[in-house]
Amino acid sequence: MKAFVMKAIGQVGFMEKPVPHPGPNDAIVKTTKALICTSDSHTVGGAVGPRENLTLGHEAVGTVHEVGSNVKLFKPGDRVLVGAITPDWGDPASQAGHSSQSGAPLGGWKFSNTKDGVFAEYFHVNEADANMARIPASVPDEMAVYCADMLSTGFMGAENGNIPIGGTVAVFAEGPVGLMATVGAKLRGAGLIIGVETVPRRQELARTYGADAIADFSKEDVVQRILDLTDGQGWTQLSRRWGRISPSRMLSKSRKLAAPSPMLAITVKVSSCISLASSGESAWRKRPLRPVCVLVAVCAWNASCACWR
Ligand SMILES: [Zn+2]
User: Fold this and answer.
1) Is the whole-model pTM more than 0.90?
2) Which tens digit of pLDDT belongs to each residue from 141-161?
3) CATH architecture for segment(s) 2-148
């Protein structure tokens, strides 16, 4: 079969690989649609260290090609969605509610990290009964594939934010995941959603998906704008999308670091606690820096496809 691989840091290309075989609990899926994620480019750039001929990709849907002897819920021919994060569900971390960290820090992230990913004609899924979901007939593959990471990560951000009814949420960067966090915040009952974004089309989409206001750091002081929108109270939740621009970098564009405010302090803390968040712990939740600001940082790898579990 053909596979698109990372040959070495900074080098990609196609190569032939054998079709994988399933273990007793596993499945082999024939890829029908897949998405490129920023994380793929990070991986190729060396973010997780060197890899040799590793198949890239972690967002895909397909049809079941083969299942192991213990798989009960799926059979060949089923159309399935596969989560970007595919934990080992019996692992103690998974059982404790941190499935993304099964087996090791970020151990739930297997595709294009510790095993071949989904940019191939076929790919292997561990613990198929738990890590796949059947796609309803009314949902086409090109829609379902967005649930593998974009929608599930954004929704998980909103869920982890524990947004109170009527709460205020700031979503930094309205890319695909941020847009889904915006939808998730709306569904969770947020009363005010502020999208921090500069790209006009994304601003428009953010409003379509539920943002009540847009803060554009290329045109205004985002900190002041958010304070103005909230009568000086700030946000209830901060959901940070995993991307190239951190909230602190965004805000530093609009306000000098030499003139910090409580809001800015929180934001800087957020960017430095991403590693904590990605370790599956919620220590920052227990350390609000202001009474009205519960701090939650979310990254893609803290998500476990909550949309379909
Ligand atoms: Zn992704």
Assistant:
1) no
2) 999 999 999 998 888 888 888
3) Alpha-Beta Complex (3.90)
